[in-house]
User: What shape does this take?
Amino acid sequence: MSREFNPNLWVAPARQRAAINAVLVGSPVVLVLAGLCWRLSGIGLAAGVLALGGLALGWAARHLASRFDHGWLVRRLNAREARLEDSAALVFAATDLAPLEQLQAERIAARIAAIDPETLADGWSQRPIIATWVLGAVALAAIILWPAEVSPPPLAASSQTEATAPGQPRLSGQRVRIIPPAYTGLPARYAESLDIRAPMGSRIEWTLAFTPQAKSAALQLVGGQALPLELGEEGWSGSLRLDIPSLYHVTAEGNRMSQTAHRLEPITDEPPQVQVIEPASGLVMIQPGQRRWRVVFEASDDYAVDPMARLTLTTAIGEGENVSFSERSRMVSGTGDPKRRRFVVDLDLAAFGLQPGSDLVAQLTVSDTRAPGPQVVRGPGVILRWPGAVPQSADGLELMAKQTMPAYFRSQRQVIIDTEALIKERGKVNADDFMVRSDTIGVDQRLLRLRYGQFVGMEAEEAPRRPPLPVAEKDAPAGQAEDEHEHHDGDGHDHGDAPESPVFGALGNITAEYGHVHDESEAATLLDPDTRELLKSALDAMWEAELNLRSGQPEKALPFELKALDFIKRVQQASRIYLPRIGTVQPPLDMARRMAGKREGIVAGGASLTPFAIEDAVPATAWRALSSPQAIDLNGLDRWVRANSARIRDPLAVLAAIDALRGDPASGTLREKLRQQLWTVLTRPPAQVRRRHDGGSVGRRYMQGLR
Assistant: This one.
């Protein structure tokens, strides 16, 4: 056999490729193992694992390459080339061949010589190589970027300076670890003292050392239970979840290490805040040709705002009693810093079917990331309004045009809604509550009936009535005009008794004392006979509905309410109501009192001082008692402070002063310290009128817009 057909030369490319494939596939595994050992135990173990991994890869590559031998070569050639006539073994035979075999070998050798040995090797394992290297790179990145396990610092020297009795344990070392809740995103940290202030829900871990070694140790909560500590390698350790503010003492063998109590103060997670950035005003008028409306909200939180929020869109379409409401909501995503996210919303106005006189209200509901139980807040609403059509002028008429129905007459539909809701809940509430709710709706129906009754001159059921106001005044209800006539004693009218203590400037008292008010049908409103009849029918239906509601029978009242609503809608079809122009009629003057100089019944009695009522006398009594060496109910004061902690700026400081005085009741210094703390708790009478809050940036911007 010639050197050209040496089997080792023909299988060398296949062996080399197989070895490289094995190394490429296995190298990421070795590197990940070495990196893991380096992270856990250091560079020494990582180097050893790397060396052993290299040897294992070399052995695996050698083993895989050994499979490519003389037999493999013959099988590969015969399977690949049919023109070799399954005679490739004759070419690479190591023994002498017969003359016929030599002749066949020479023929096949010429054909084998045209084949490149590189083409006999298997292809590269591309997918396994790429997969192992990608996974290995991810694993290595995770190992490198994974936060290192910080070894706890050694116990710090205790700040305790109070002396203990000889032979008793003394606090010699301390370490306090604070682990905030995961939703805050804050890392764990170590406190510098035994006074702890951390987010609510944090886990507090203590490690304490005593000299000489104590037989037992605990954390005694002031006014609560004791938390026993367990002895470990570094000292006594224990943990507690921080949920409520409290005070505690470190005790060893039942003895306090310090007379001063240490603080456990949780930081409350505040709810998120929502404000409207765009538009600048809460009420925006739609512009001609406007098709889109952009609203920008900004939500902020002390830790993080949920990136998803709910946008509520409410539309009010129609006028008077024919207003229809619809509400839809959708989720929107915010951008920016987790503590301050912006939610930008672009609304297509064509999708809401707005028309003149319609409103579109947008409100955003956001939540924070507190777990469990995120805090949900619904922000302020912003209104896009399409102004209604301006009524036609009444030029050439000696009358003054008014809209048919004022805005405050839009409540009959609400009475129906409340009645229907009450009927559905008949079986869910007790009889007394049902009767109260039905009577309340009946009162609403009565008030509405009296308002509509002004249009037909119906006498009001309340007394006294106020004197008439000029029709031209802006706050005068549409359709209301009153006529005042002069009366004298003996004219047949009941004028009522004058008020016992008339107040100067009170319109009701002036009318009750000097005048008498009537409603006259023709002077109150000028309605055509058909419209007047419809309105009277509506009032009759309201009266029947009111009777049934006040008697606790809303089912019988509902048909009359619907009938009244139908009559009101028909009245609204009238385009205008015309009121005669009348001037202001002043109440008549009493000429007997004029220029007499008598002030009886005009000026009220002199003002008297109202004694200031103390909301709770417990802290005031204790504050006065502390000025003298007398006994004090510290337990009662402790209970009062805990019950009123919401109104105290620093309740833990007051509780600490109470606990210190409880340990040494005769100490004048401790009594004075508690007295100083109680001074900040005492209720103070108002010294002056406080300036109203300006509403922040939004309020100032609103006031500037008014100017």
